[in-house]
Amino acid sequence: MASNKMIVVEVVYALADKQKLLRLSLPYGTTVRQAAEQSGMQAHFPGLDLANIPLGIFGKAVAKPQERVLEDGERVEIYRPLIADPKEVRKQRAAKAAKAKADEEGA
Predict the structure, then answer these.
(1) C-alpha–C-alpha distance, residues 45 and 48, integer Å
(2) CA distance 104 to 98
(3) N or C: less crowded end of the chain, CB within 10 Å?
(4) What is the C-alpha separation between 70 and 24, in angstroms, rounded?
(5) What is the Cβ-side half-sphere exposure of residue 9, based on CA atoms within 13 angstroms?
């Protein structure tokens, strides 16, 4: 971060009942992870582990947020850990639908 040029980015995080969007002015060369850590989001969501939580930009996960340098105007998204495996949820939903169809045809 040798340059004194600044960029403006947004950092967002949401729970089912609470959302927060913070607009930050940061030095050019700031990474996705650094922006999340410098956002102050932990003050709004105590216990949020910004050092390890998955991050993304505009809905797309970033594989190496500690290396990806931000550009002016980007939105950093802090992702919540998954409660259930999406594949398993789809399997359960399909099985339930198949059972309901079988019950309907058997009635």
Answers:
(1) 6
(2) 10
(3) C
(4) 12
(5) 28
Which pairs with CB-CB distance under 8 Å and at least 24 residues apart come from 17-22?
A: 18/44, 18/45, 20/44, 20/45
Query: pLDDT tens digits for 7-39?
Result: 999 999 998 899 999 999 999 999 999 999 999
CATH T-level topology, domain 6-82: Ubiquitin-like (UB roll) (3.10.20)
- The domain locations on the chain are 6-82
**Cα–Cα dist 73/17, whole Å:** 26
* Distance separating alpha carbons of residues 50 and 20, to the nearest angstrom: 15
Whether the CB-CB separation of 10 and 75 falls below 8 Å is answered with yes
Helix (H, G, I), strand (E, B) or coil at 63: coil
Residue type, 69: V
